[in-house]
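Why show two proteins at once? Because comparison is the fastest way to build intuition. When a single record is shown, students tend to memorize it. When two are placed side by side, the eye starts asking what differs. So, the first record is below.
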Amino acid sequence: MTFAVSNATDVDCDQKRTEFVQEWCNQALPERLDDQQVRAVASVHEHTLVTARAGSGKTRTLIARAAFLVRHCHVQPGEILMLAFNRKAAEEMRNRLHLLGVDCPHVMTFHALAYAIVHPEEALLYDDPSEDVPRKAREFDRILREFLRDPARREAVRKLMLAHFRHDWSRIEGSGAAMSRDEGLAYRRSLEQEALDGTRVKSFGEKVIANFLFEHGIPYGYEWNRMWGDRNYRPDFTLKNAKIVIEYFGMQGTPEYDEQMHDKRAYWEKQNGWTLLEYTPDLLVAGDREAFERRLAEDLRRLGVPGRRLREEQIWKNIQDRVMTNLGRVLSTFIGRCRKALWTPEDLDARIRGHQVTDEIESGFIGLASEAYRFYLQRLASEGKEDFDGLMARSAELVEAGTTHFERKSGAGDLRSIRFVMIDEYQDFSPLFDRLLAAIRAQNPDVQVFAVGDDWQAINRFAGSDLKFVTGFQGRFEPSTELPISTNYRSAAKVVEAGNRIMQGLGTPAKPRPGPERGRVAVADMADFLPESPEVSLWRHDILTPAVRRLVAEPLKKGKKVALLARQGYLPFEIHGSSSPRESDLERLLRNIRRGMSQEQQRQLDASTAHSYKGKEADVVIVLDAVERRYPKIHPDWVFARIFGDSPDTIVEDERRLFYVACSRAIEELIILTESGRRSPFLDGLAGCHDSIDWQKLAPQCPSDGDWVLRVGNGEGMGIEPTKTRADMFKELKFSFSGGAWPHWWLPISKRHSKEVVCARIEAAKWVHGCDGLDIRLCDSSGAVVARWVLVDGVPAPVEDGPQGSKRS
């Protein structure tokens, strides 16, 4: 394999080689490559790791290199093996090569290669994205149920999981308790506490309250939104069947927080009929949770709230399905990590013997996981089944033993005849995949490895991937080189700058694409968002739906593709609508946002978790949850993965990368939603490089298919007296008050009544007559005024063509 260059020093030779490949690419390829991409294409004499930032054209580079090898270096297409981690990526590489007139027969996933080597007789378990319940997950759930048929195991699981959901994980040995004051506080602000009923709360004290209410059958809403003047206020707990709110003041002692406590007390004193119950951590810090619960019980009894603790068996029955689903997920992940780390059950047992557990709950779980791992493998063997991890391990064993032939429907090959192995998404490598690659190299020492990956997008540690294969590349492959391709051709300059700031100090920064377009990055503070009365009428305690509807309106009208991205399916805001176990908060939010939109606009709008959106892009990306306990999020289940080396520090590193992945999906505009008082610390690096969303400049975007909304305010120049004199009457009639540019009282009216009937009832209402100055507007749910009156001489006079008539109020 030679290049047409003259004798020169190594530096000159490298430069001339790059210039030659650049000229070849310009003539042979439809897309122009930049200098860094060309250097990667030209690296054909040594093992190469390419660090490719988001949007930098890694697939383009892979394809160009394969085409260069075949069309210029005269490498036979069958001598190239191109490997990806999913079928979509493999198909894209295959199709793009075909468009260049290069048909490489060995473009496939790692699992396809393993299958072609092993040709297993067993039924293969794998997760197909097209299935509602993936096959492997379904089979694992079935095996877990069989595992738990043993009464002793079922009882052990019941005790273990109840203890797990009641435990104070913020104080375990080896985490927050062993850190400095600042580190411990940061850990607790990242730790997501989960109550027995699945409610995610901010602290152990809130979890104790949530558990108490659930265990006593007292229905409640968590952080339901209320309007407090010109701000949003979300008290911790609102009892659904009583006018009682519960606040857990967990950070008393700082002047700012103490002032907030004082303001909240004053607010509730003015709320007619409402009672505030407040609690502080004193008793919990002393370790007396029972005393804390006794005080809560006494306070509720005093206020007439009936509550009798459910029997433990009933509590377990109420949560069993959800808890067992979660347990299955955690055990499946645990076993998958064992498989990808190449740990046999015996290896796991040996590691358990040398592992220092935090407490009996962790000890109980890893003991249970060890049993489940062994049971799972035995069940697969007895039923003639195999999963992909087992298939990968068996393929490596066969290659190690000398089997190098592989055969697929599209053709056969021999690993000894492969000259170039090209790997996509190398940051997702695990010991399991590395074992197969090492086996190939043992049988074929001359094979050259070309790997492309982005260490900033390494977000699959939970699934067993390990960045040591990226950081240790040059130590594992000799001779080798590492090359960057860092220009982000996907995103505008502002978006690229935001990504660099998020990942500052963690590697080579990305460069923006050439051109004048700067794009936009904006941060939206949900604490400043004031929904108007039509929005509150439609969405009630949900402030996220109306806020996002305002944000997406303009880009959708312009035909832009918009993606709503969240850390997980559960959102840190109340989402309006009937919930079901099959529908996540994110799915319900998307349904709310799409309501009343055209089919075309609905197709332009997508919602996804950040994990699932990796590899995709949208013109406008809205990150929905840049708040504490989302970015970063440390779930209490993390302690069950300590045996794999997980720690709060490693989790926060992964969470920062996940946040970067979410933000780097944006092409033109990135909007990040947060909330004052609980901003994600990952936003600190963005100071000075983003705009702020002014909610008042965004008009409400409500569908017109909801109820009527009656709005009553003061006429122009009338001051506040007209509505002030009727305030008690409005309260008695269940009106709500809304501030803003036009303060008014409002009332939803069912649309089962016609406009004519509603208008007649308004004109006949007692509160309408008697004094001048009221401005009365009947609106549809979109906010458009359909009828309007002003009081003149104590009589409602219709306004037909006034300045507000037939327009949005």
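Second record. Ask yourself what differs from the first in the token line.
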Amino acid sequence: MRKKAQNAMFGWGATAWVLVFFLGASHRIRAEDVDLSKLPPPAAAKIDFSRDIKPILEKNCFKCHSDEKPKSHFRLTSREAALKGGEHGVDIIQGNSTKSPLIHYVSRLVADMEMPPEGRGTPLTAEQIGLLRAWIDQGVEWEKTTVAETTEVNLSPGFQWTSVSGDSHKFRELYWQHNEWLWGLENYEVVSRPSADSKITSSGHAYRDDYLFEFDAEKNDLGFSHFGWSQFRKYYDDTGGYYPAFAPPAYDLNRDLHLDVGRAWVDFGLTLPRWPVLTLGYEYQYRRGDQATLQWGPVTHGTNSKSIFPAFRDLSEKVHILKFDVEYVLAGFDLRDNFRGEWYRLESQEFNDSGLTLPGGGMALTTAAERQSYFQGANTFHVEKQFTDWLFGSGGYLYSKLTADGSMNVDTVNAALLNTTIPYFPGWHADAIELERESHVFSIGGLLGPWEGLSLSLATQNEWTRQMGFGGASVTLISPLFISPPFPEQFHSDWDRAIFSQDVGLRFTKIPFTTLYAEARFQQEDAGQFEQEQPDFSLTPYLRQTDVKIDLSDLRVGFNTSPWRRFSLSGHYRRYDNETDYNNRLKESMGKPFEGYPALITERDVLSNEVEGKLAYEWAAWLKTSLTYQWLQNHYRTTTDPVTGGISTGGELLAGAYDAQITSLNTTLTPWRRLFLSGSLVYQHARTETAAFGSPSVAPYVGDIYSAIVSADYGLNEKTDLVVSYAFSTADFTQDNSAAGLPLGINYHQHTLQAGVRRQVAKGKTVNLQYRFYRYQEPSSGGINDFDAHAIFATFTCRLP
């Protein structure tokens, strides 16, 4: 089945390519279709290219037809390129301006080929067209130019030294910076131009565990090749939670937790005149290493148990991506076809404490090994066109097919240390999980206007997705009375979804110095879900059928105005509402309906409100300020069936709420010509709470965050700059509920001070020296995450020649 999916993807992409080639081959503009009587007459004088023609080309043509990615592959930067033409054929017929398409275009006699295009330049006057006609009739003379091969080199070698006193793992997690000597290239770039129409570029940077290498080669009217490889390292702290009543109050893994994240890519493209732009590419992405997780395990002392022991995940993730792209312009239509084939593989193993008992220190350890692999093919076809100056339209179709398989094996080591007074599962194994998914997505949109300052955008997208999954597992049960053999189980699920969305936008600019806008998105979703579990022996079989209906609305209105030169005001209001109804048509176990999880929830509503305003004022040429305020409110409501045993009384409840207010002040100050000052202050108050059914262990998460950034840049002289900056952040979400739960609320103070000097030591050569001081304090963890750090950075930048 995977082979069929891949063949379908390649077949669809090939069909679209053939269609684009056929349309392109059939598209030609004929001189006999142009009303030549409307052409302005050629100038009678002798033409001088530098005096008469070059200013016209520079002002009206080079914006689109220079050496850098010329439109329609037509360049007007040399006589050879101008006479060669572009993807529409030869545009200049030497000695015959009457039949030269270039003259037809600039005379605006060919629909959808008017040059310069609307909004990209001022139409040529009859006098300018006459000069162009005389220039072509007189032989297309050009000024003499000589282009020498050039090479430019920019190098910035540098070194770093960092010393940390305290928790070095926390320092690396916060700043992604290693605490030792490092040297390498902060930046490098080599640009070579073998000819006027070709360029070779190599650039990037190179430090230990942080690389970027790029190589690009381009030649106009032929093609390009791009190569690259990048990798960076993301660090994690290996410390878990903190509970002061235990000895020790916190645990760490004594592991160097980090992930190496990287990608390598290669692209080859053809940009031949009168051909579609073709691109064939390959990309490899990866993540590998050890990653900290928040699945902290329980630590038990007597009858007191707290989940504070840290956990980690050994991860290896690889993705291979193959891509084919086609781009073409046909009669003003921009046509694009993009194919992606993605091969994915994941191998990971989690290590979690499932029971550490104090004071002896005996531990039960649970490992979870996961394997996933899939192939996903997707092809999109997109078309867009500017029909008139007031009508723009676009449309597209996406087809996607995914086939996947996976496995999960969970085992518990030292299971005898767990609580064996109740039945538990020491492990389960699922070796054959398979998934298939197929999606069709259609979209169409348009932009109309402006009419008297009013513009309207409309779009709709429809999606149909079907997903099927099945697999098997075996589970072992241990109870105080017996240990069972593995129970085999079979799982099967189907999921069908249809999504219909509509987007509309209004923008009004008729009021002087003011823009009013309104945006709305509406989405309707219908889904059907089927689940079936067929266990063996004494475990309970399960059957479920649920219909889901979702109505979503996302509304936003706003304005921005600047009635005076020094004053501007903007603001918006947004309301997001997502209502979901679950119709559980069938929920059976052993052939009988049952209460509780899953399919406990019958309705869900997410309602969000957001208000934001920004006021900016220029007090003087040397003082500018802006004030921003944002208010957020999110409410999560659920309706459930009643469940006996005190689990749920049924009905609607406020399952959760999040409220936040954010205020920020920004200032820029330039009291003297060589001094530049800037600063920002942000204050945020946030509150999160959830329905806890009276449990004191779940307390509202409420607190304040303050942050400030101040920087100064002073030009000591023409060759020397001094730079100083300071950043501060503090938060206090402390919760005093250690008796009932954990003091999970964080309280921290973070400081960063930086001072540096930039000095130009010679032409094209600059030295940059920096010193940084870091301080982090976290009272909520008893100080175990605190650190002080000092760092020195030095960079030498040179430009050759």
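One difference worth noting in the second protein: Residues 1-28 have pLDDT under 50 and may be disordered.
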